[in-house]
Amino acid sequence: MPGPISRPRRRLAWGIALALPCVLLSPAATVAQSPRGGAAGPSALEWQPCQDPAEPDFDCATFEVPLDHDRPAGETIDLAVIRHRATDPAERIGSLFLNPGGPGGSGTASLPLWYERFFPAELRERFDIVSWDPRGVGRSTAARCFDDAGEATAWWERQPAGFPVGAEERRVWSAGREELAEGCAERVPELLPYVSTPDTARDLDRLRDAVGDEQLNYWGLSYGTFLGAVYANLFPDKVGGLLLDGNVDPVGYAGGAMGIEAEQTTSLRMGSDLGSADTFEQFLELCGRAPASGCAFTAGDPEATRTKLTTLLERLRQKPAGEWTYARTVESLWSSLYFVHPGWTEAAELLQKLWQGEAPPVPGLPELLPYPGFEQQPAVVCSESPNPRSLERYAELDAFSAARAGDLGHRWVWDYEWCGHWPATAAHRYTGPWDRPTAHPVLVVNPTYDPATSYQAAEAMTGALADARLLTLEGYGHTALLNPSTCVNEHAVRYFTTGALPPEGAVCTQDTAPFTPIGPTGGIAAGGGGLAGAPHPR
Predict the structure, then answer these.
(1) In 3D, which of 131, 95, 338 has the Cα closest to residue 220?
(2) CA 135/CA 144 separation, integer angstroms
(3) What is the CATH number of the domain that holds 462?
(4) Which end of the chain has less neighbouring CB within 10 Å, N or C?
(5) Does any domain span residue 105?
(6) Are 480 and 445 in contact (CB under 8 A)?
(7) pLDDT per position as a tens digit, 200-241
(8) Tens digits of per-residue pLDDT, 77-112?
(9) Total of domains in the chain
(10) SS in 3 state form for 312-350?
């Protein structure tokens, strides 16, 4: 096993194969108000046809970047990159980068799944669609805190499903997160301080240069909107078309100073629990109005449907239906809200089966990548966004969030408890300013009922940036790209191809309302979880 980093240009390219021994973690520092240092030139992108049969017509490459952009001649890491070339080369404009969110979302896994299903044909014709696994994630040099996927999955299965309920489950939950943090400190200590959003923004700027674009065209989902906002303020003159979809409140995410125990979790500062509560209220309202052929769980009207759900969840608290505990059921409902089709219909069918006393099989983990990467979300969030450190504080916040957001509030609190044990602080953080004038205006898009990134967060993002226009999607689910709207797509095409923004106050609707049959859909999945993407089912 290799020793601690000591020699110039030794490449940290262990990706999903190797682990490194423990060394001292780097101290935190705040990113300066402009990009630092004179970085060495980017390495070439040597595209080759992807080898995975699930990635036909896609090209793959490995891109080398500095571990620490402040030391461009020092150690390096590898990024896994993927693209689909423009289908009309004669009309090609350039490259359009996708970040699928997370943090911890794998672009190399998401892009092949989403390319034909969600991206407008006009963008596929005129842009190479490019994505990548950010540093610390997936097939790139990755944060891997277990020896292999089997060990990681065994750890996951020992944790309470969904979130902990009661003192004993909280103890087990916290001990499991502490175990994971200790594994990270042992196996990837050199990487952990360098997986922050500003580190990734600097990687993205090198990728932009490597594909030959003078300015960045970018579609960022969920956490990818925070990445986009950081990029816009570190490299304002490099902003071409920047579409931020399903928005993070940048001030709420960045929080205050690290090292001081935060009063709230990242999620509560951003109001994610309230977004989930509002969206779930719409789920019950629309289900109650729908016939049983549209929503299997309907009780004939919205109020009766709400009462039916309350009765069911209380029943599961007292006696689970097979493996379907109260917490597992709430977690499943939360994750189903992300995708209106087919998520909402499938959630209603699950609830009805549980109501009837059935116990459907519990879904397994998605097999998008050889290693599940549970630790790759906290590796980013916990290193750069302040969160409480004490288990007692999470118990207090659990009661607080449940009081204001109902059953789904529990999940948003406990998903951040691993930050209470996290062993590393980002060497580079970005906490503002957010209003540097950009070369071109930014387009912000958000559903009105988003279960992870609320419409209010989109308003906060729009107000924070120097020049941004908010396009409202009157609809449901997490992000506009994954809950399609022809109207949004037309504005996106116009924005990326001509630079034109939607009119001030423009509002779009979704193509298909919830609980409306739309025919066979196929599965939707995204790498990672947390702020964006299909969460890991439990």
Answers:
(1) 131
(2) 12
(3) 3.40.50.1820
(4) N
(5) yes
(6) yes
(7) 999 999 999 999 999 999 999 999 999 999 999 999 999 999
(8) 999 999 999 999 999 999 999 999 999 999 999 999
(9) 1
(10) HHHHHHHCCECCECHHHHHHHHHHHCCCHHHHHHHHHHH
